[in-house]
From TrEMBL:
It comes from Streptomyces liliifuscus. Pathway: Cell wall biogenesis; peptidoglycan biosynthesis. Residues 95-249 form the L,D-TPase catalytic domain. One of its GO terms (biological process) is peptidoglycan biosynthetic process. Residues 29-55 are annotated as: Disordered. Residues 1-30 form the signal peptide. Residues 33-47 have a biased composition (Polar residues). One of its GO terms (molecular function) is transferase activity. Pfam families: YkuD. This is L,D-TPase catalytic domain-containing protein. The lineage of its organism: Bacteria, Bacillati, Actinomycetota, Actinomycetes, Kitasatosporales.
Amino acid sequence: MITTTHGAVRRPVAVLAVSLVLVGCGGGGAATTPDQRPGTTSVNGSTAAPPAPAPHVALSVAPQQLPGLGPKTWAKVPRKTRQALVVTGRDRNSSISTVVLYERTAAGWRAGTTWPAHNALKGWTDHHRAGDLRSPIGVYALTDAGGLRPDPGTSLPYDRSGGFRIGGTGFEGEPLAGSFDYVVAINYNRQAGTTPLDWTRPLGAGRGGGIWVHVDHDGPTQGCVSLRKNHMKELLRALDPDRDPVVVMGDAAALRR
């Protein structure tokens, strides 16, 4: 039996067998007369000095929309969202990404630290299928978390369960142990409000699922996004369900659409 903890709430959910390599993862001035021009002789015979240049003022203004997103992608970000995890893939067929958690303030979107990440072995797709080894492009809610290790202090509902245990090796021979110590479920083809281990697939099993943000194992994933363990802990502690967090994910060219 898996127990879910969120504050004092405990709910049982069915134990699911998970046999995964990765389930996945400005204007002009006034006119002057000749004796008013800088460097010319005035009526009283004195020479006017050239005016001092205006000082350069560097302005730091937060953008009003998430950087790097085109109109189609930006339109998919819910208006209520005040936290956005932006995952930007190097290119369509690359398994290398960067991740930034943005927070929306009264001044605009403020960026956090840029984190290195992995995505699926073969890159990205607009139409994810089970086993295609590509991560789904899109905007998805982040509502549920869990892992093999104790809750590191997240505000999301968190399932601690042995069902997150994993072994074996990844695509580059790297050990997978510990990859699911901490996970955040990406709401692609899953039922929100359940443990990340829930196997419900609203789009059907053929469209894949079990797409998570999880601990990086130094190699490509099957479909998930992976972050170093310390960054996963930071993410879990930062995500706030009251801020309606989402992940915006895809290769850079796709996100600019």
